[in-house]
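Hey,
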Amino acid sequence: MSYHNLTNEEIVFLYYIATSVTKQYENTFEDKSITQSLISDDEETLIEITTELPKELLDEILLSKHYVLMKQVMVKLKPLADMIKDVEPELVNEVDKLFHYKPD
């Protein structure tokens, strides 16, 4: 099955990307900061730098077109991704392997 030439795998993949980016934004709003990490080849954190963000900047980000569109895409793809998960769980498992983060 496909929707406008998007395969089920591509739909789930795009949903995971949209969800991951949206969660990153939401973590930023919750923490009121951005943390960047330098990670070694064996995935050990070598250094973390956290920058506190002023309320004005957080408000600006919350209203940004990028955040609003990403959240809209995530919400619209969720029912499709859920349906695909019910019908093709093995396909979703393959997409899961591409992500460290799995949406709820």
